Every structure is written in C-alpha cells, then in structure tokens.
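Hi W.,

Here's what went into the run:
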Amino acid sequence: MPTHKKTKIEILIEASFEKKLSELLDTLDVKGYTVYPVVSGKGEHGNWSRRGVINVVGQMLLFITIIDSAKAHDIAQKIHDTIEDHLGIITLSEVEVFRDKKF
Amino acid sequence: MPTHKKTKIEILIEASFEKKLSELLDTLDVKGYTVYPVVSGKGEHGNWSRRGVINVVGQMLLFITIIDSAKAHDIAQKIHDTIEDHLGIITLSEVEVFRDKKF
Amino acid sequence: MPTHKKTKIEILIEASFEKKLSELLDTLDVKGYTVYPVVSGKGEHGNWSRRGVINVVGQMLLFITIIDSAKAHDIAQKIHDTIEDHLGIITLSEVEVFRDKKF
Amino acid sequence: MENIIFLAYQNLTSPIVLCFALGMLAAFIQSDLSIPQSVAKAMSIYLLFAIGFKGGVEIAIQGLTFDLAKSLVLGIILSLLIPWIGFFILKATTNLKSIDAAAVSSHYGSISIVTFVAATQILKASGIEYSGSIVAVAAVMEAPAIISALFLLNWHSKKEKEHETLNKSTIVEHQTPINEVFLNGSIILLLGAFLIGLISGEKGFVEIKGLIVDPFKGVLCFFLLDMGLLAGRHFKEGIKFLNLKVVLFGIYMPILSALLTMVLALILELEVGSLALLMILAASASYIAVPAALRIALPKANPAIYLTMSLAVTFPFNLTVGIPLYLMLAQMVSS
Amino acid sequence: MENIIFLAYQNLTSPIVLCFALGMLAAFIQSDLSIPQSVAKAMSIYLLFAIGFKGGVEIAIQGLTFDLAKSLVLGIILSLLIPWIGFFILKATTNLKSIDAAAVSSHYGSISIVTFVAATQILKASGIEYSGSIVAVAAVMEAPAIISALFLLNWHSKKEKEHETLNKSTIVEHQTPINEVFLNGSIILLLGAFLIGLISGEKGFVEIKGLIVDPFKGVLCFFLLDMGLLAGRHFKEGIKFLNLKVVLFGIYMPILSALLTMVLALILELEVGSLALLMILAASASYIAVPAALRIALPKANPAIYLTMSLAVTFPFNLTVGIPLYLMLAQMVSS
Amino acid sequence: MENIIFLAYQNLTSPIVLCFALGMLAAFIQSDLSIPQSVAKAMSIYLLFAIGFKGGVEIAIQGLTFDLAKSLVLGIILSLLIPWIGFFILKATTNLKSIDAAAVSSHYGSISIVTFVAATQILKASGIEYSGSIVAVAAVMEAPAIISALFLLNWHSKKEKEHETLNKSTIVEHQTPINEVFLNGSIILLLGAFLIGLISGEKGFVEIKGLIVDPFKGVLCFFLLDMGLLAGRHFKEGIKFLNLKVVLFGIYMPILSALLTMVLALILELEVGSLALLMILAASASYIAVPAALRIALPKANPAIYLTMSLAVTFPFNLTVGIPLYLMLAQMVSS
Ligand SMILES: Nc1ncnc2c1ncn2[C@@H]1O[C@H](COP(=O)(O)O)[C@@H](O)[C@H]1O
Ligand SMILES: Nc1ncnc2c1ncn2[C@@H]1O[C@H](COP(=O)(O)O)[C@@H](O)[C@H]1O
Ligand SMILES: Nc1ncnc2c1ncn2[C@@H]1O[C@H](COP(=O)(O)O)[C@@H](O)[C@H]1O
Ligand code: NA
Ligand code: NA
Ligand code: NA
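Here's what came out:
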C-alpha cells in the first residue's frame, strides 16, 4: 500500500480548556484527534507540573490531529487565534499515512 | 557526532491489544519500542476516553518504534494488516538519531 | 501568519534523572520544554514497565524541547553526552511553529 | 406481595442503589463528576478480595457443605448453557449478526460480582440466611460462558456456511484468550482471597476485619456511584447501536436465567439463601472479564453492543427491580 | 480570653493542623513528598460525600429547621455581596487590574469546604452544638459569587469605558461557565450525597457509618497534608505576583466577611453553631470550583494571583488563626 | 523449638504473608493482576504515617526511654557498619564488580519498613512487649548506609588504583544525593508523623484511630499483595543477573546482620522487644530509598542486581523465615 503525506498539528493546551478545544475542532474540518497526557513543563511563564494540583487549573494536555496538508496551515492558524490565552505551544510537522481518505 | 536518518512509526491501538502488538513487534525486525499513554480521542467511530472506563476495553495506547528507514514501510504495512481491527491510526515520519547501529 | 522551521529534540530518560535533566536544560540555551509520561518499553536491555514499580527506578519520562535548528545539534549532543547512563533514546526532527521568537 | 413492595422499597432507598442513581444522573446531565480510574480499580480489588476472603473464612468455620458442592455444579452448567439459550433467542428475535449475538449472550452466561454483592446486602437486610461461600460459585461461573460462546459460534458458522459467508477472521484466535481468562486478575484475586480466607480462618478474619468488613458497604456505595457514571455514559453513547428488541432482551433474559436456575435448583434441593444468590448470579451479566476476553477473541464483534447491554441495561435492571424479584421468587418456592 | 488561647492551642496541636504544617514544611524544604493526584481526588470525593450525606441524615432525623432556612438565605446573600466588597477594597488599596480584582474577590464570596470541615471538628471538640445540615448552606454559596463577579466586572468596565480601554476579550464568554459551575462535580456530589442522606436516613447512616464516620478525621489529616504541600508550592511560585497589600487583603478580608456575617446573623437570630459555621463559610475562599470556572470565564485574569491568595494565604490563615477567632466571636455575641 | 514452629506456623498462615504469596504466585503465572501505582503509593504513605504517628504517641505517653536512646545509637552504627561487612563478603565470595558490590551492600545497611511492620504484627501475636517508638530507629537507619557505601567505594577505588582502572565517572556525583536522601518523601513522612504523634499525643491518637489503627492490618495485606507481585516480577526479570553465590548472600547476610545486632545489643542490655525489632531492621534491606539514591549517585551500578537482591530474595526470606527466626533468637538470649 502506498503512503500519503499529511500534516500533524500538535497543540499543547491548558486542561481547563479541553472541552472548548474539542468543540472548536468539531467546527473545523478535522476528521479526528487524539489527546495525550502531559506531566510537567517549563517556559516563559515558569514551571508547572501535573503533580500536586488540585484541579485542572495548571495542568496541560496535548491534542494531536492529522489532517490534509493543504488545509493544515489555515486550521492551525484558527486554533492558534482562538485559544491564545490557554495555549502552550502549537507545532506542525509532516507524517505519512496509509489510508489517504481517513484524514 | 553525526546524526543518522531513521523512520519513526507511531501506532495508536486499543489497549486490549497491547500484548498481541508487543508479540508481533518481537517477531518483526524491530530493536525496540516505547509505549505512551493516551487520554481520549475522536474519529469516525465517535468519542472515547480513558476516564471512566472499567477495563482495557475502550482505552488506547501509543506504540512508537524507531527503525531503519529501508525496512520501515514494510514493517508498518505488516503491522497495519495484522492489527486492523484494533487500530486507531498508524503514521510514519522522519527523525534523526546519534547511534546508527541501535535502530 | 507565516510558520518557521525549528527542531524538536525528544529525550527518553529514566525518571530518576528528571531533576538532573531539568537542571541541565536550564544551563543550556533552551527556552522551554515539556515532559510526557511513558508506560513501558523494550530495548537492548530488556523490558520495563511503569506498572508495578515501587518508585522512580525503572520508570521513564519523555522530555521534548523545540529549539532553533541552528543550535539543535550541539545541544542534543551535549544532552546525549551528559546523561548517557540514564538515556533511553534521543531523536531530532523538524517541526514548524508560528511564533519564531519563542523558541 | 407486601413483602416484595417492602423489599423493593428497602432496596431503592438504600445508599447503594441511590449512589448508583446519583452516578447515572450525573452522567445524564453531563456533570464532570468522575472517580479516578486507579481508585475505581482499587475499589474493585478491595471488593473482590473482601468477598473472596469472607467466603473462604466461612468454609474454614462451617466446613464444605453439600449445598455448596451442588451449587458449584449447577453454576458451571448454567454458565455453559445460558449463552446457547441467549444466542438462539437473539437470532430469532433480533437482527444482530451472529457474532454479536454470540458475544452478547456470552456476557449473560458469565456473572457480575457487584450484582452479587448488592444482593447479599439485601439478603442480610431481609434476614435470609446464606453462606458467604457461595462466592466460590461466582468464581467458577466467570469463564465457562466464554468458552461456550466461542464453541457455539464455531458450530453455527460451520452450519451456516452454505448460506452466509463469514469472514475468515471472524473465527480466528479462538484459542488464545481462554488461558487469559483464567489468568484474569479478578479471577485470580477472588480465588486467591478465598484460599487465604480458608487457610487463615477466623484468626485471620479478626485481624483484618477492620478493613474487610467495617467499611465494606461504604466502599460499595462509592463503587456503585462510579458504576452509575459509567452506565449512564455508556447508555448515552451506546444506545444508538441497539433497537428496542435488543434492549428488551437485556431485561427478560436475566428473568429467564433466574427462572431456569430456580427450576434446576429445585431438583437439586438447594437452600433458600443459596438459591436466591444462584438465581442472581445466573441473571447477572459480566462487564469486566468477558468484554476484555472477547475484544481479543472476537475482534469483529461490536463492543458498543455488548457493553451497553450488560452495563447500561441489565445491570441497572437487576440492581433496582431484579434482585428483589428473584429474592421473592426464591422465598416463594422455598416455603 | 483563656477560652481563645485554649481553642487556639487545641487547634494548633490537632493532627489536622499539624498535618497541614508538615505538608507546607515539606514543600518549603523541597522534599519530593507527594500524594498521588488520583488519591487526592478520591479523598476530596470522600470528604464531600461524607459531609453531604451526614447533613442529609440530620435533616431526615430532625426535620428542616427554621434556622437552616434562614441560614440558606443569608448564605446566598453573602456569596453575592462579598465579591463587591472585596472588589472595591482591592481597587482602592492595591494596584491589581480590574479583572484580577474581580477574579480574586469572587473566590472570597465562594467557600472552601475543607475549611468548613476543619471547623466542625473544633466545634465538636469545644462542645458547641451545630447541625450537620448547615452543609447545605455551603452548597448554595459556591456559585453565586462567580455570577456576582462577572456581573460586577461587566458593570465596572462599562462605567470605566471613557477612562480605561478594556480589551474586548476581557469580557467575552461570560455566559458559558455558569452552567458548568452548577454541573461541577463537587457541587453535584455534595447535593447528591445530601439527598441520599435525606432519603436513606438513619438506616442508611448505620449501614455506611464504618466508612463515612470512623475513618473521617484520619482522611481529613491526609487531605490536609496534601493541601499543605500544595499551599507551600503555590506560595513559593506565586508570591512573586503579590505585593504586601494584596497579601494583607487575604488576611483581613476573611475577618471582615466573618464580621459582616455576624452582624447579619444577629438580625436573623441564628443559633451559635450555625452562626459560627456561617462565619467560617463567609470567611473561607474557594480554590477548586471558582478557579476552574474563572479560567474559562476570565482567561485574561492571572491564575497565579487568585490561586495563591486563596490557597496559600487565606486557607492557612483560616485554618490556624481564623477558625478559633470566629468561633470565639460567635460564642461572645451569642451569650 | 516448639516455639519457633508455632511462630513460623502463625506467620505463614497470617493473611499478610499469604497475600504476599498470592502476589508472587500471580506474577509467576503471568496473571495481569496489578494494583494501580498511585494506590500502592498511597498505601505506603498510609503505612509510613501510621507507624510514625503511633511511635510518636507512645513517646508522648511513656516519655523518652533510655532503651530508645541506646537503640538509636546502635541503629546508626549498624547502618554504617553493615555495608562494609557486606562489601568485603561480596568481593571475597562473588564476581560482582566493586561498584555493584558497594551498591548491593548499602541496601543491607539501610532498612525495609514493611519488614519492620510485619514483624511488629508477629510480636503482638506472640505477646512480646515492644515500644512503637522503635520506629524512630528505623528512620535514622535509612540514610547512613548510603553515605557509608559511597565512602567505601571511594576508599576502595583509591586503594585499587594500581591494579584496576575504575572509569572516572564511576565515582562522580557522590555529593549531590546525600541531601536528596534526607529530603526523600518517605523519611520526611516518617519523621513528620512521628513529631505529629509526639505533639498531638493521646488526644490526637483517639481522633484519628479510626483510620490509623483499625484498618491498618488490612491495608498491610493489600500492600504485601502488591509487594508480592513486584517481587515475583523482579525475580523473573532479574534472576539472570545473579548467580547462586550472590543469591545466597541475600539469605545469609540478613542472618549475619541480625546476629551482629544481637551481640552488640547484649552489650547495651536492650529489652527483648527492642532487641528483636533492631535485629529485624538490621536484617532487612531497603528497596525504596536506597535504589532511588544510588541510581543517581552510582549510575554505573546495575539496578537489576541490587533491586532483585533486596526485593526478590531478601524481602521474601525475611518475611517468611527470617522474622520468626530472629524473634526466637531474641527471646532465647533475653531469657
Ligand atoms: N520550546 C519549548 N519546547 C517545548 N515545550 C515548550 C517550549 N516552550 C514552552 N513549552 C511548553 O509550553 C508551556 C507554556 O509555555 P510558556 O507560555 O512559554 O510558559 C511550558 O510550560 C511548556 O510545557
Ligand atoms: N485524524 C486523526 N488525527 C489524530 N487522531 C485520530 C485521527 N483520526 C482518528 N484518530 C484517533 O484514532 C481513534 C480511532 O479512530 P476512528 O477509527 O476513526 O474512530 C480516534 O478515537 C482518535 O483517537
Ligand atoms: N528503536 C526504538 N524505538 C523506540 N523506543 C526505543 C527503541 N529502542 C529503545 N527504545 C526505548 O528505550 C528504552 C531503553 O532502551 P535500551 O537501552 O535499548 O534497552 C527501551 O526500553 C525503550 O523504551
Ligand atoms: Na449470568
Ligand atoms: Na467565602
Ligand atoms: Na538492614
């Protein structure tokens, strides 16, 4: 089976914004996404860690969605603009998949 | 030290199939792999979430293996064919490593 | 907004070395990093699994940092050399980001 | 009649059932209430250990009774038999595929330990005597239903070959999971705790009573809160895969299994406590061990169907209406 | 006077407060001591359920009292009122931005259930009678403060429009989170447990007492150990965002709220137990429900400010000094 | 003689040891039984807190005894001494590298708190009096062994320089981990709980007894179930790194340490309860604090060797055979 080039968008975001981001992705042309746990991190705004937090405030999650490369930049841009206040970082990279139609 | 180009295969798979996939990878020409937790996701088959599931049915895991690019496509194909029923998605991408022999 | 090419360094490392690696990254020219949990893995040294371990010995974590591609190789090399005894694997790959200055 | 109304009232106002209702409600109104997965798992380990252990201690004190021996045999027979009955009913009355029908019916042959535990609480409340050692029957009923279902599917697919062309992969991998069922953590734990109770006896019981007995019912409440959340969420997601005939099966099948048990138990002359608990085991449907095994053994069967059936239809039915009903029946035929 | 010294001594040498101190100490010396997040969450579920349930059982036994009705009304008024008072004080005395001032003050209108529970333990120890049903007041005080704060921010930003140009996105999304506050797991759990207690009554209480009552205080200790770790870590990270005037607010604002409650309660002629607990609820500041809601409703407000204030300043103050103080005041005015 | 058979029988049929055996068995037959990591951690926090607290309360009641003071001194001496003895034996009898020999023997100088707790349960059962305050000795014995081992390795590598060329990185980083050992969560918790017990005394004890005492033994059972799973899995993975001589060290070394303790304790005239517990502490090997520290201090030492030794060889030996043996010896020499 040949493979097809797609774009992977990775969005590191505050856990308290999980529901909103899911809703946003549903309105965009995204066929699927997966959410991964995150332990801790460090950036301009200092350290944070999942350990010892009492609720979602101060935790982060990683959303990954694989989409058609032609649409990727626009979608990433929209996500970036909408969730700026809750954003960790957002990156794009290239991957290959088997099932062209699925993404 | 120079770096060497390798291929990273990422396999999102049902947790109930963890053991079988490990066994499959052992039979293929794969020198190592790492398994990551997954929180939730959405795709053609609807939503799923690790939260509030009573056992492995309905959970997913991410297997990542880094291998020789020459063998990558074939191995990915074999994995894809064998585990189709339990598959989330499978992707390939390019990475660089220091220790050529290790992968 | 245009995107900018950066390099992503991924470091799989023993959990007992988490603090040391954080300290090392602070001394290097790294503006941020994120740590992800890992479930289990297999390599030359056999299997390991987060399940059923009594403390950090025998667990692993994944550190990811996105940095300026020009500095990436050197930094990765330094990390590799310093933590060799506690290293799983270290990989480099290419990603795109929106905020050039941030990385 | 008064009796059953009283029993039903007792049951529906017990914290256990109310906690389950709270969980379902919270799921329906989309509250973010949730019990951490690791804690839910710990509670299930606690409950399994506690009932296994208490069962073993009772045998250590009373000795092995003839009643228990008969119950064990009956339990295995029921676990093997019920999947066949369920399968033919499903094939006759619904449009489920053979593989889904087999998968669903194997859940009804196996058991739900929480349903069992909830029932023992009501037995106690209504003053019916029973031996905790019946939990051994629960242990032996977990696995045979799975074997039975795989066997019947094989048999069925051979029979149907000329009409229906079953995908080859439908029936592969039947061998592997049997082992895994017996190595399943919950079965090992239940049997292991049973043995530990048997060996350490009353002395051991006194030592760990402070954890195993005193907070037991409270833990059961929290566990049922979690079960309610789960059942509610499964119901919302899974109901679209079920039509009315399939849902109804989830309600009359447990009653049928209970009646079948009653008839067979009369032949064996079981005591009323054992009878009631056996009826409940037969009526209950698995939602842990069997789904885990079938996801590997029958990957083409749709888990949304079988999980929704056992978790979101049959479990709530048994917990609220079924248990008092079977109990009343058991009392009627025994007196 | 002797009385307050005795109360303070009792309080400071209780395992509960000492565990909190141990947690803070461990955080300050950078020990890696930590309680797993899932277990901390389970403990908070346990505590919420236990006090909600006991409150419901008390009403089932005593009936709904006029005292409780009055307390409920007063609680809602306080929760709506305190954010306004806090906001104007913060704007007048500190350099916090309007949005941060509103966010901080809404925490003080809402409540901390752990502070409440810690206080009931001291009430018991000092022999003051109170009804567990006051926990219903805690439940109704959680949310109004959030609505109040959003409302006042809207009003303030309109008024200030000519002077200050508030970023448009400051005041968006005010609508969404209100629902979510009411669906917040801890509120559902508290109210649900209350209802379960009410329905299952004394009979239900006896059944699950072994989990809900006996280990309660011990669990509270471990929970406070975790709170201490959290408060300590928040303090270290967050103190750089606060200046002295802001920190002081975290100490005098609870006292003010308690005094306000005292005055209003005198008009309503509350009993001493209810009065003391209401003062404590008013004085306590939320660190779970409100931060979660505000992070969405007011994303531009700085969480480091409001979390540090309620968790690392006001909570420790109330736990050590505040509770005995309010208690003594309540006793003084009631006698 | 009858006595030891009785003790051994009591021990081997106690739920605690049986739970450990169940865990090992489940691991050997590859069952998927597992206790969630966060829950296991919570149990270890509970156990540490409970014994620390009870120790402190006992001192609050009895005052500091001379016996305890002597035990503390002896404990520190043993913790410093045992790694040297172990190291020379390992170098003389096995082919372990120096770094691995040092790493392994430092585990035997430190202690296993679970072994200690299991022993107190048998002491109680056999009616031997002891003071819970001995737990303070456990706390002071954790760390010195690590320092001792690093020291001896340094000394050894200097001495051997002409013969053997030790990789430079073998002996780096000796400084850093010492701090971390003292800040290690379990030591802070044990000492902190001890102090809390000391300050809050009998009054505090009564308050939290419902969690700290009543379910204690049951929790210990579940914890040992998990330890059994762990030991079993470590054994399977780790045994290939060990040869017979190394495994034997894991059995005679604890006996040697216990005998050494006995001799030194006779000089100090310790009471029988303290003597027995000190022997057990000396005989036990660390599998939490020391491995965590050594993984950083001696990254070139192979963790598979030291973890398997302490967790999968010495711990099971002590739990089943060692404890009754040391106990009998202690009774013999004391009478
Ligand atoms: N260069 C980076 N590489 C990887 N993760 C980063 C990077 N910068 C920031 N992050 C993550 O994003 C979070 C928020 O970043 P910041 O807003 O810069 O504090 C951090 O806590 C990290 O988890
Ligand atoms: N385009 C995608 N990007 C990332 N993850 C996906 C995507 N599509 C599917 N997934 C993941 O794969 C799981 C199964 O996908 P599906 O079979 O399409 O329901 C989903 O629940 C997601 O976790
Ligand atoms: N080729 C690989 N792909 C992905 N992960 C690997 C690979 N090789 C090793 N690892 C990870 O690194 C850990 C240590 O590797 P090793 O030192 O080879 O045993 C393994 O347990 C895996 O988690
Ligand atoms: Na059944
Ligand atoms: Na308040
Ligand atoms: Na020792």
